[in-house]
Amino acid sequence: MPQTSRHRARRGLAGLTALAVAALAACAPSSGATDAGGAADAKDTLVVGLPGSLSSLDPAVEGGILNYYVAAITSEGLVRLGEDGSLQPAIAEDWTTTDATTFVFDIRQGVDFQDGTELTVDDVLYSIDRARDAVSSPSTAAYWPEVASVEQTGDWQVTITLAAPSASFLTTVSNAAALFITSRAYGEANPTAGTAQAPGLGTGPYEPVEFAPDSHATFEATGTWWGGESAYKTVRFDFIPDENTRLLARKSGDIDIALNVPLDQVDTWQSDDTNVVLAADNSYVGFQVNQTAKPFDDVHVRRAIAHAIDRDAIVSAVLQGHGEAAVGFPTPEALGGYVGAEEATSLLDGLPGLDFDLDAAKAELAQSSVPQGFSTEIVYPNTGPQLGQAALAIAENLNGLGIELTVTEVPIEQWFTTLEGPDRGLHFTWYFSTTGDPGEVIGWYLRPGNPYGWTNPEGEAALTAAATTPDPKERATQILQANALANEDVAAIPLWWGQAATAVAADLQFDDYTPFTLLGVWPDALTAH
Length: 529
Fold this sequence. Notes:
By secondary structure, this protein is of the alpha+beta class. The chain has helices spanning 39-42, 65-71, 121-132, 169-172, 184-189, 243-251, 266-269, 299-307, 311-317, 332-339, 341-349, 358-366, 385-399, 412-418, 440-445, 457-468, 472-489; strands at residues 16-18, 45-50, 79-81, 87-89, 92-97, 102-107, 147-154, 157-162, 206-212, 216-221, 234-239, 257-258, 274-289, 323-325, 374-381, 403-410, 426-432, 492-505, 508-510, 526-528. The N and C termini lie far apart (55 Å). Residues 87-450 form the Solute-binding protein family domain. Belongs to the bacterial solute-binding protein 5 family.
């Protein structure tokens, strides 16, 4: 089984591209306040078109990337991520740790919830407990390492002690990962917050005032945010799953911004009244292979599928070049934050993998338990048409081997329910690393006890060590060691690292647009153009 390295044409580390807009440069503010600039003078309401619907406004319940983009304007954690991915103060105005096990947070005083009640330390303690509860917060609980204690250690101080060191714990308590602070009174009165009846309560600048699943969600500026004045009085998210309808809504002026524009439609959206900006989005797309499902427990089957995938052709034809063929879980941007761009490229190039080779694919299938082929299905969410197009291209190659792959589109809410189902052999992984941690994606999908049946003691040991190693370069080595072992076992089949396209009305612009922009109070980052 030939394991070969790939040498790829690399884009710049920041991965930023702009079409007919000013050059963009990353710049993270040192506090939560954002200069609203000219946006407030431009209009009172910002209307955003999302490519799918949300069933909950609470990312702790429904953890899709669109949920995080929406929550960014209304909910806060103890810390937040700046536009360069650095940790910045939020509800904690300061923090200290000496051993990556004990974390002491000084809570900001004078913070109001959106209903006018004042934040207390007890609210913070309640929110931490809620975020760790797998029943009330299924989408965030898994992010949390084992916690030894959470306690108030001063009038405005909270100390979290972990059972073991965690190199990435500070990102866990951000609203880009697994903590969304609410009040105890609201949470206990509304155990199903995030619904139409109880859309939520946070400390961010915009309050949810109306939520109609499958239609829209409306937020209004409170005017009392600790971080400063808001750029808009109202931000409304319209859920528009049909791309033609969403494009027409932008052309008619019914929406100002469209998030996650299909990459093969960038040229269609770009026009005199609309600019499209692109940035690497720390996303990973691949096939996760369930080794507990036959015939995917047979390594020859997994190798045959991997050899039948032409990643470079998919990036060129499906993504129109707006992405990069992936060889592992960590994105170049995330890994580069640990070891530098040049070293990240070299390390990723060194990962073993299976090249596109249909003759090799046929030979592997001939050695398998199903030499005549078999039938299987893969499902993808309606918000990711590029996933469906890629799957159809792969299905055509597999059909020549005798493997019939049925490609099925489902609503994104339904797709979430299939991600770890034991009845499917192939699952699409479409993961946006909101934290920029190179160990986030692999740590989730190949964690010890993962639902896909991958067991490799050496790989599990490397991931366990990476979770506690404070030195970035040593941690990067451990992450890539686990990834190399997973590649050799064909536990996953990487497809591409992505970019995100955002269509913006020509009279608006992001002064700074990075992979982390949409995880902050991003409406306030817009200025009149």
